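STRUCTURE:
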C-alpha cells in the first residue's frame, strides 16, 4: 500500500479528488481513496498493456472476471453464485439503470430511500421512470433506518422497484439480516423488485457483517456491484450485475464490445477479486483506525455535530444543523479550505449535511478536522 503522502504529492499524482478544484482545498469529497492500488491489480494492467490487450472487451475476459468474483463472494461474503449469472456493465449506476429498464414493470416508478446516492436521481430519469422518495430518519440510537411503512405505501401505489444501497452511501450504515429480510419480503408481496447496490460490501467494520440481499430472496433481488470502491478502481469502468432470478437472463439484452465496460476494467476487477484481499485487509485496518480517529476528533472539536460512526464504507454523514449551517459544504470550502460533498442532492429537504470521505492519511485527516473546527469557532 502507498506510504503516507502530502496533499501536494497527491495532487501531482492526479485523480479527480485532488485536482478538480482550482483553489486546491484539502479533499474529503468524491469517493476515491488515497491509498493507491493493489500490486496484483497493477501487475494485471501492466501485463495487458505489454501484450497489447486493449481492444474491445470480450467474452473470455468477462468470464474470467465472473469466476474470480464469485469465488471471492463465496469466501468473503458467504454468498454462492453461479458465474454464468454474472454480467459485466460499465459501472454500477449503468447496471442499475439497465435493471430498471429491462427487469421491472414497464413504466413503474422507482423508490429511493433517502438520503440516497445522488447520481441515482438522474439515473432513474434516464430510465424513463418517476422517482418516489421515501425519507429515512434517525432512530433514538442515531442510526438511519428504512421507512418500511413508507416503502409499503409506495409499492401499494404502483412502484415496481426500490434501489437499495447497502452498505448505505451516504449514511455509512450496514443493514442487518432482519432489516433486509423485512424489505425483500415486502417487495415480494407486491411483486416488486429490489435492485441492490452492494458496491461497498467489502468495506465493513466489525462486528458488522454484509448480508447479500439476493441470498435472502434470489428471485426478488437483482444485485449490482464492483471491485471499484474497495480496490480504488472507479476510473477503469467495470461492474457486475448478478441475475439470480431464473427468468432474468432471458430478459437481459445482449450487449457487445465496449458496452460491457472496459477491457482493462475486467482485468483489474478479476485481479482484485482473485488476489487483492491481502492489500484490502491492510486498507481496512487503516480505514478502521481513521474511523476511530474521526470519531474522537469530532467529539473533541465539534461536539454538537450530528454524527454516528459508520458501520461500513469510508464515508461519514455529518449534520451541521446544530451549528446553524444551511450549506456547510460552501461554508467549509470558503472558510476552511476543505472540499466536502454537499448533502442537499441526496434527497428533498436535506439541509445542513455533508458527506465526508475519510479514506486518506492520518495527518491529512487531522488537519481537515482541525481546520473545520477552527472555522466554526471564528
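SEQUENCE:
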Amino acid at each position: 500500500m502507498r506510504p503516507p503522502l502530502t496533499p501536494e504529492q497527491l495532487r501531482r499524482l492526479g485523480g479527480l479528488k485532488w485536482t478538480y478544484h482550482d483553489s486546491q482545498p484539502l479533499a474529503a469529497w468524491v469517493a476515491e481513496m488515497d491509498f493507491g492500488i493493489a500490486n496484483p491489480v497493477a501487475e494485471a494492467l501492466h501485463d495487458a498493456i505489454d501484450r497489447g490487450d486493449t481492444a474491445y472487451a470480450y467474452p473470455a475476459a468477462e468470464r474470467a472476471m465472473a469466476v474470480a468474483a464469485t469465488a471471492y463472494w463465496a469466501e468473503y461474503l458467504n454468498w454462492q453464485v453461479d458465474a454464468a449469472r454474472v454480467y459485466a456493465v460499465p459501472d454500477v449506476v449503468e447496471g442499475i439503470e439497465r435493471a430498471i429498464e429491462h427487469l421491472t414493470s414497464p413504466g413503474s416508478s422507482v423508490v429511493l430511500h433517502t438520503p440516497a446516492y445522488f447520481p441515482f436521481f438522474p439515473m432513474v430519469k434516464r430510465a424513463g421512470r418517476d422517482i418516489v422518495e421515501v425519507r429515512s430518519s434517525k432512530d433514538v440510537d442515531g442510526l438511519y433506518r428504512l421507512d418500511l411503512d413508507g416503502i409499503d405505501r409506495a409499492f401499494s401505489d404502483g412502484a415496481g422497484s426500490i434501489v437499495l444501497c447497502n452498505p448505505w452511501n451516504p449514511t455509512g450504515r450496514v443493514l442487518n439480516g432482519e432489516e433486509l429480510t423485512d424489505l425483500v419480503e415486502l417487495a415480494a408481496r407486491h411483486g416488486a423488485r429490489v435492485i441492490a447496490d452492494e458496491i461497498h460490501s467489502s468495506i465493513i467494520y466489525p462486528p458488522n457483517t454484509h448480508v447479500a440481499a439476493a441470498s435472502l430472496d434470489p428471485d426478488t433481488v437483482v444485485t449490482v456491484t464492483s471491485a471499484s470502491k474497495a480496490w480504488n478502481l472507479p476510473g477503469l469502468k467495470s461492474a457486475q450485475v448478478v441475475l439470480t432470478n431464473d427468468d432474468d437472463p432471458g430478459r437481459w439484452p445482449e450487449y457487445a464490445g465496449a458496452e460491457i465496460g472496459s477491457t482493462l476494467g475486467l482485468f483489474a476487477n478479476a485481479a482484485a477479486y482473485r488476489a487483492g484481499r491481502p492489500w484490502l485487509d491492510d486498507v481496512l485496518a487503516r480505514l478502521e483506525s481513521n474511523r476511530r480517529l474521526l470519531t474522537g476528533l469530532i467529539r473533541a472539536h465539534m461536539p454538537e455535530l450530528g454524527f454516528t460512526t459508520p458501520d461500513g464504507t469510508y464515508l461519514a454523514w455529518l449534520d451541521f444543523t446544530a451549528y446553524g449551517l444551511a450549506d456547510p459544504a460552501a461554508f467549509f470550502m470558503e472558510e476552511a479550505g476543505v472540499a466536502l460533498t454537499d448533502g442537499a442532492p441526496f434527497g428533498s429537504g436535506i439541509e445542513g449535511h455533508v458527506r465526508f470521505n475519510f479514506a486518506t492519511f492520518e495527518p491529512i485527516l487531522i488537519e481537515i478536522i482541525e481546520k473545520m473546527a477552527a472555522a466554526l469557532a471564528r
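REMARK: The longest strand covers residues 110-114.
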